[in-house]
C-alpha cells in the first residue's frame, strides 16, 4: 500500500458501505464549488511536460555548471550562487525540473569534492528553496492551482500577494542556513577543493543521458565499484556529469520559447477573464505541450540513426564490461576456494574433494579390496547405503551435465504482451530519446492520488465533517482575530501536510473548510473582514508550499521523488534525519513568511467586509 493505493482503497471501501455515492464521485472528478480536478490535472501535467522537456535537453545541468564556474572554489559564494539559482529557476518553471536535475547535480558535485564530507547542507537547502520558490506562480505547484481555483483568484493577483512573503523568506533563510543550521566546515567549507577532469575527458563529446547505454561501459564499471558507487570510476563519471554536461541547444531553445509563450498567454487570458469570459487554462497549456511533444518526436526521428548507433555501441561495451566483471568475480571465487582447499590440505591427507564419480569409484574400490582378500574384512554397517547414495549422486551429476549441454537447444520463450511492450519501449528509447525520457518522468501517480483525495474530501463534506471543522475554525478566528487566523492556518497547513495525504490533500481539505466557513458566516449574516479572509487564504498558500520540507517525505510528492533520486545516487536520507534537519528550517521560514504577510495585509487590506474582490 502506498500513497496512490491507500486513498483509492479508502474510496472503494466508502462506496461499498454507501458512505459516499455517485454525487461525491462526480464532484471529486468533474468538480464542485469552483474546484475542477480535471482542469487542474490536465493543466499541471501538460505544463509539467514542457518543464521536464527543458530539463531533458540538459539546460538545467548546463546552467548549474555555469553557476559552479562562477562560484569558483569559494564555498560560501558557491552556496549562495546555487541557492539563488535554484530559487530563481523554481520561480520561473516550477520545482519539478529543479528536483529532477538539481538533486542529481548536487549529488555528483559533493561526491567529487575532496573536502565536503557530507552533502546534507547542499541537498536539504536545495529542497527547501525549491519548495519556497514554487509558492510564487500558480503554475509551479498543483496546490497553488487548487487554491486559486477554489477562491477564483486571478493568477497575477495570486503572485502579487505571494511574492513579498516568499522573497523575504528566501533572503532571511540563507544566512540562517549558512551560519546556524549548517555552520560546519565539513558541510560547507570556506574553500572547496574539487577533483579535476582530465584533458582527454574534456575532449570527448558529452553524451546524451537520455539515450540508453550512452555512457557505454562506464555504467557497468560504476556498479562494480567495491565501495558502492564512490570509487574512482564513479568519481570520474560524476566529474563528467557536472564539468562536461550535455546540452541540446535547439531543444532547450524550443522548450524555453514554448514555456515562456505559454505562461505569458495563460497570465494574460486569466487576467482578462472578466471581460472575455472564463475558459479552462488547459486550453492553452495542452496545445503547447502537444507542440513540444511534436518537436521532441520530430527531432528524435531526424537523428534516429545517430542515437541508435550510440545505443548499439554502448550496449556492446556494457556487455563486454559485464563479462569482464563476471570473469573477475569467478577468479576471486576460485582464489577463495583454492585458499580454503590449501588450508584443509594441511589438516587432512585428503587432497581432492569427493565428487559423485570419485565417491562411487571409492565405494567400488573398497568392494574390490574386500573381494581380493584384503586383511580388512569388517565392513561398515552403512557401507551399502553409502554405495547407493554415491550411485544416485553420480546419476544426478550426469543428468545435470547433459541438461547443461542441451540448454542452448531450448526454444525461445513465447512472445507475450509484456515482452512486446518492453521491446517497443526500448525501440522508442533509441528512436525518440527525449520524448521517451520526458514521458517516463511525468508525475502520473499524481492523477489517481489527486482524484482519490478529491473524492475523499467530498465524502467528508457530505457526512458533515467539513462543516464541523469550519465551526471550530470560526471559533478560533473569533477569539484570535486576523493575526490568530494567519498563524493558526500556517500551523495547521504545515502539520496536515504530514498527515493528510501530502500537501495536495491538505490543500483540498482546507479549501473546502474555508468555503464552508464562508457559507457559515453568510448564513449567520456575520461577514468576514477582507483582511482576515485574505490573510487566511495566503497563509494557507505559504503553509502548503513550505510544508513540503517539514517532518516527513510524504508531506509532498516532490519529497518522495527527491528521496528516490538521492537513493539512486547512493545518498540515503533517513526519515529521522529529514525531520531533524528541516525542523529549524521550516520554523524560521514560516515565521518570516507569516510576519511579512501580517504586515502586508494590514497595509493593503482593510477591516471592511469581504466582498469577493481580490
UniProtKB/TrEMBL annotation:
Indicate yes or no for the key word Cell membrane: yes
Sorted alphabetically, which keywords does the UniProt record give? Cell membrane, Membrane, Transmembrane, Transmembrane helix, Transport
Q: Quote the subcellular location field of this record.
A: Cell membrane
Q: Where is this region: Disordered?
A: 203-228, 322-397
Residues covered by the Citrate transporter-like domain: 38-269
Membrane-spanning residues where?
6-25, 37-60, 80-109, 121-138, 158-182, 251-269, 281-301, 442-461, 481-511, 532-561, 581-604
Q: Where is the composition biased (Acidic residues)?
A: 219-228
Instruction: Give the membrane topology, semicolon-separated if more than one.
Output: Multi-pass membrane protein
Q: Name one GO biological process term.
A: transmembrane transport
GO cellular component labels: plasma membrane
Please note every region of biased composition (Basic and acidic residues).
Answer: 322-331, 358-370, 381-397
Which InterPro entries did the record assign? Cit_transptr-like_dom
This protein is called what?
A: Citrate transporter-like domain-containing protein
Q: Which species is the source of this protein?
A: Venturia inaequalis
Amino acid at each position: 500500500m502506498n500513497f496512490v493505493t491507500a486513498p483509492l482503497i479508502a474510496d472503494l471501501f466508502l462506496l461499498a458501505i454507501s458512505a459516499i455515492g455517485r454525487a461525491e464521485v462526480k464532484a471529486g472528478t468533474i468538480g464542485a464549488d469552483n474546484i475542477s480536478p480535471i482542469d487542474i490535472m490536465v493543466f499541471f501535467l501538460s505544463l509539467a511536460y514542457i518543464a521536464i522537456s527543458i530539463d531533458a535537453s540538459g539546460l538545467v545541468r548546463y546552467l548549474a555548471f555555469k553557476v559552479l564556474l562562477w562560484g569558483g572554489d569559494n564555498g560560501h559564494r558557491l552556496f549562495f550562487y546555487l541557492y539563488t539559482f535554484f530559487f530563481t529557476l523554481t520561480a520561473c518553471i516550477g520545482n519539478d525540473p529543479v528536483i529532477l536535475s538539481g538533486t542529481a547535480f548536487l549529488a555528483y558535485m559533493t561526491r567529487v569534492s575532496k573536502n565536503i564530507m557530507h552533502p546534507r547542507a547542499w541537498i536539504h537547502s536545495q529542497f527547501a528553496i525549491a519548495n519556497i520558490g514554487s509558492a510564487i506562480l500558480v503554475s509551479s505547484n498543483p496546490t497553488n492551482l487548487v487554491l486559486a481555483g477554489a477562491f477564483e483568484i486571478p493568477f497575477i493577483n495570486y503572485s502579487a500577494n505571494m511574492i513579498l512573503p516568499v522573497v523575504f523568506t528566501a533572503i532571511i533563510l540563507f544566512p540562517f542556513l549558512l551560519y546556524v543550521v549548517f555552520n560546519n566546515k565539513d558541510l560547507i567549507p570556506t574553500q572547496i577543493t574539487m577533483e579535476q577532469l582530465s584533458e582527454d575527458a574534456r575532449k570527448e563529446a558529452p553524451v546524451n543521458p537520455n539515450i540508453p547505454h550512452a555512457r557505454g561501459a562506464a555504467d557497468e564499471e560504476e556498479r562494480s565499484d567495491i565501495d558502492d558507487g564512490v570509487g574512482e570510476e564513479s568519481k570520474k563519471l560524476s566529474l563528467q556529469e557536472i564539468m562536461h554536461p550535455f546540452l541540446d541547444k535547439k531543444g532547450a531553445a524550443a522548450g524555453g520559447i514554448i514555456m515562456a509563450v505559454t505562461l505569458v498567454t495563460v497570465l494574460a487570458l486569466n487576467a482578462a477573464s472578466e471581460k472575455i469570459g472564463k475558459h479552462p487554462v488547459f486550453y492553452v497549456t495542452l496545445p503547447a505541450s502537444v507542440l513540444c511533444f511534436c518537436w521532441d518526436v520530430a527531432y528524435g526521428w531526424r537523428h534516429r540513426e545517430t542515437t541508435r548507433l550510440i545505443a548499439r555501441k554502448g550496449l556492446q561495451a556494457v556487455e563486454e564490461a559485464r563479462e569482464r566483471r563476471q570473469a573477475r568475480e569467478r577468479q576471486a571465487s576460485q582464489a577463495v576456494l583454492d585458499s580454503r582447499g590449501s588450508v584443509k590440505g594441511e589438516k587432512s591427507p585428503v587432497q581432492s574433494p569427493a565428487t559423485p564419480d570419485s565417491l562411487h569409484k571409492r565405494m567400488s574400490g573398497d568392494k574390490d579390496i574386500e573381494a581380493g582378500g584384503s586383511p580388512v574384512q569388517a565392513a561398515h554397517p552403512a557401507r551399502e547405503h553409502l554405495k547407493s547414495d554415491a550411485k544416485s549422486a553420480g546419476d544426478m551429476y550426469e543428468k545435470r551435465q547433459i541438461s547443461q549441454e542441451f540448454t542452448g537447444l531450448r526454444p525461445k520463450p513465447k512472445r507475450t504482451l509484456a515482452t512486446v511492450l518492453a521491446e517497443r519501449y526500448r525501440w522508442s528509447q533509441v528512436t525518440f530519446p527525449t520524448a521517451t525520457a520526458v514521458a517516463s518522468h511525468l508525475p502520473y501517480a499524481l492523477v489517481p492520488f489527486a482524484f482519490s483525495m478529491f473524492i475523499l474530501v467530498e465524502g467528508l463534506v457530505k457526512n458533515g465533517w467539513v462543516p464541523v471543522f469550519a465551526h471550530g475554525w470560526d471559533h478560533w478566528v473569533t477569539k484570535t482575530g486576523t493575526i490568530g487566523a494567519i498563524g493558526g492556518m500556517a500551523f495547521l497547513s504545515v502539520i496536515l501536510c504530514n498527515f493528510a495525504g501530502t500537501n495536495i490533500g491538505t490543500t483540498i481539505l482546507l479549501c473546502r473548510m474555508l468555503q464552508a466557513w464562508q457559507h457559515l458566516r453568510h448564513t449567520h449574516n456575520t461577514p468576514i473582514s477582507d483582511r482576515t479572509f485574505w490573510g487566511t487564504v495566503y497563509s494557507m498558500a505559504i503553509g502548503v508550499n513550505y510544508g513540503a520540507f517539514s517532518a516527513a517525505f510524504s508531506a509532498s510528492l516532490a519529497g518522495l521523488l527527491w528521496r528516490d533520486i538521492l537513493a539512486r545516487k547512493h545518498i540515503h536520507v533517513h526519515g529521522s534525519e529529514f525531520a531533524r534537519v528541516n525542523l529549524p528550517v521550516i520554523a524560521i521560514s514560516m515565521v518570516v513568511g507569516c510576519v511579512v504577510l501580517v504586515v502586508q495585509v494590514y497595509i493593503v487590506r482593510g477591516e471592511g467586509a469581504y466582498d469577493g474582490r481580490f
